[in-house]
Specification:
The protein is of the alpha/beta class and 643 residues long. The chain has 3 domains: 30 residues; 257 residues, 3-Layer(aba) Sandwich (Rossmann fold), CATH 3.40.50; 265 residues, no CATH class. The chain is built from 20 helices and 13 strands. Strands 3-2-1-4-5-6-7 form a 7-stranded parallel sheet, with helices on both faces. It has a two-stranded antiparallel sheet with strand order 8-9. The chain has a two-stranded antiparallel ribbon with strand order 10-11. The longest helix has 33 residues. The protein is elongated and about 135 Å long. It starts with a helix and ends with a strand.
């Protein structure tokens, strides 16, 4: 009996000893001086979660940091934030998509890292399932990406920083040549247990741990420390947990502990509560542990499927009709998401960050194109006004003192030119056109809104999805704010219009005056911006729509509506003010004297179409008209695709 009890006590003593060791290494063991490994630290997946926290921690310890991630915009933002927090820090960035880490991408990384004294590599980039699933439920692309991002990228990045060897198997570069360095590979708690419904991910992370442990034994005699760090739940996007607790630390808290463990155990769970959880699980019979994990993962799967169905139903209800009509058939650009998703790196429409929307960062290139086109259209309107002013000036050159009405005609001509100067070069013009751009910016970002249908009045009798939109409901403040910005300019335009009407010289100019009636009163401006800007994408079809039934014609909203009698919802001016478009008005650049005549000729004879005809044929198709090289008529030079 005594011998039996002694045998049973052995595992208890071992576990207790292990518990004491855990307490020592988590609470009493000092961290190493990480700068001894080398000058630079390379961190993959460095723009979010654990990777970003590692970048800040290593920079605070005096290392130069190379941030590696997929998004150039997020890399730039993280680098800027890091420099502001850690003053004097040296930060560099490298854009790499590890799901496409082929030979050319590896060669690019190798050339970037070759001249640097790399002391630490944090292989943090990784990806998991959208939510727990059976292996056969994964898409082929997900299966490939999980292997590529979690295993291949870590393996190749490790090989790159270790360096190359010569024909005699002697190191000639990298950590092997310098005989120092530390490689940290981020694993997962899923690697330490059998994980049904995370089979591929847990296997990939188990590879990370076994690879790290084997490599640690290989490289320890060469002065290189390799370690697999195994977190459980941390408040990251991958974990989809936002609230921190004792067992779910923030990335910053986790990394403070993790950095202290670099250079010690080949495999470790750096957060003490995680290590405690894994220690407790190790006591359980495997069948019990599998049952508990499967029970948890089945519950997550049920909630994930339910949420996915809700998103799909919401998307079908909230999907902009233009997606199916204009954007979905395109293969040349990445367009609006067909289904809502949460983004955190939108630059032009930051108000939609961290909320479900139809926009993503790659679509912003198209949004910016569309915005620039509207800006150029407004500039062309002013240039055509200037063309008419020049035409009036040429008409005045034929005025002779012999005419009985010479003095009156000359005085009226001077009044016209004075008013033209007031209109084209006034501060009020800049303020007004900046307001127009704010309206445009607001409507562009409105395309991100998944509840767009709540802001539209639809004609249920029309089957065509685009032509069914009668109007966009605007908040009362929109027209008031817009007119407040354009009131002074409108007064100058009205004075100019009256001066032109009174001047026989202006009326006899070879060019007709530009139509600026939209600036004459608040209602005219409100109607014009609504009909031309807000409604435009809902009523003009691109060539992708050729196989669809032709609408009964362009629908005009009744101009009899009045500001005080309508119900409005969308504050497009407020929406525009929340964007990051450059809404400061810039006058069109002056034409050089050498090219002025030809350029004006093109604008006069190829630009004499109305703004609505010129305005984008649709948000999905822009046709740019220019004079042919022979000077005869107009031709289509090219097609841009703002949406």
């Amino acid at each position: 009996m005594v011998e039996l009890l002694s045998l049973l006590a052995i595992p208890v003593i071992l576990k207790a000893t292990h518990a004491v060791y855990l307490a020592y290494k988590f609470f009493f063991r000092a961290g190493k001086d990480l700068k001894k490994y080398g000058e630079w630290a390379v961190v993959t997946g460095a723009t979010d979660g654990i990777g970003k926290a590692y970048a800040f921690e290593l920079a605070s310890q005096g290392l130069k940091v190379l941030l590696v991630a997929r998004s150039e915009e997020k890399l730039a933002d993280t680098a800027k934030e890091l420099k502001s927090v850690c003053s004097g820090a040296t930060v560099d960035v490298l854009q790499v998509d590890f799901s496409k880490f082929d030979a050319s991408a590896r060669a690019m990384v190798k050339s970037k890292l070759a001249p640097l004294d790399i002391g630490i590599l944090i292989n943090n980039v990784g990806m998991s399932y959208p939510f727990t699933k059976y292996f056969h439920e994964l898409k082929d692309s997900e299966v490939a990406d999980i292997m590529q991002v979690n295993m291949d990228s870590m393996t190749w990045m490790t090989r790159i920083v270790l360096g190359e060897i010569d024909e005699d198997l002697k190191p000639k570069s990298g950590m092997l040549l310098r005989k120092r360095g530390a490689i940290v590979n981020t694993s997962s708690g899923a690697a330490r247990m059998t994980s049904p419904l995370l089979a591929e991910y847990s296997a990939a992370k188990a590879y990370v741990e076994k690879f790290s442990q084997g490599l640690a034994a290989e490289l320890a005699p060469k002065g290189i420390d390799v370690q697999a760090q195994t977190p459980l739940f941390v408040t990251t996007k991958m974990a989809k947990i936002r609230k921190a607790s004792m067992t779910v630390p923030t990335p910053e808290d986790y990394v403070k502990c993790a950095a202290r463990q670099i250079g010690y155990d080949p495999a470790i769970s750096p957060w003490w509560a995680h290590s405690l959880q894994l220690w407790v699980l190790s006591w359980l019979p495997e069948s019990v542990a599998i049952y508990l994990v499967d029970w948890q993962h089945q519950d997550i799967r049920k909630r994930g499927i339910k949420k996915e169905k809700e998103k799909s139903e919401q998307a079908k209800k909230g999907q902009n009709p233009l997606f199916a009509v204009h954007w979905a058939p395109k293969i040349d650009i990445q367009t609006l998401n067909p289904y809502p998703s949460v983004k955190e790196n939108l630059k032009l429409c930051p108000a939609y960050n961290e909320k479900s929307s139809c926009c993503h960062e790659t679509f912003e290139t198209e949004q910016l194109k569309f915005y620039n086109i509207w800006e150029s259209l407004f500039q062309e309107k002013l240039l055509r006004m200037d063309d008419h002013r020049q035409a009036v000036r040429r008409a005045a050159s034929y005025l002779t003192p012999k005419r009985d009405s010479y003095d009156v005609d000359l005085a009226q001509y001077r009044v016209v030119m004075e008013h033209y100067s007031n209109v084209l070069h006034s501060v009020s013009k800049n303020r007004c056109f900046a307001g127009l751009l704010t309206y445009v910016a607001g409507m562009i970002c409105f395309s991100c809104n998944i509840t767009w249908f709540q802001y539209l009045v639809l004609d249920d009798s029309v089957n065509h999805p685009v032509d069914s939109v009668l109007r966009v409901r605007m908040a009362p403040a929109v027209c008031l704010d817009l007119w407040a910005l354009c009131h002074s300019f409108g007064r100058e335009v009205k004075a100019l219009k009256e001066a032109i009407r009174d001047s026989i010289i202006a009326r006899n100019a070879t060019l007709s005056e530009e139509n600026m009636d939209l600036f004459l009163d608040a209602q005219a401006l409100c109607d014009w911006m609504h009909d031309e800007v807000a409604l435009h994408p809902f009523r003009v079809r691109g060539h992708e729509d050729a196989d669809l039934p032709t609408p009964g014609g362009i629908r005009k909203v009744a101009h009899a509506r009045r500001l005080e009698k309508m119900k409005y919802d969308l504050d497009v001016m407020l929406e525009g003010q929340a964007t990051n478009f450059n809404r400061t008005w810039q006058d069109p650049p002056l034409l050089s004297s050498r090219g002025q005549g030809h350029a004006r000729f093109r604008r006069l004879w190829c630009g004499r179409y109305t703004l609505s005809e010129h305005a984008l044929k649709s948000w999905a198709l822009v046709t740019v008209m220019v004079c042919s090289s022979s000077g005869g008529g107009c031709e289509t030079l090219g097609q841009g695709r703002p949406y």
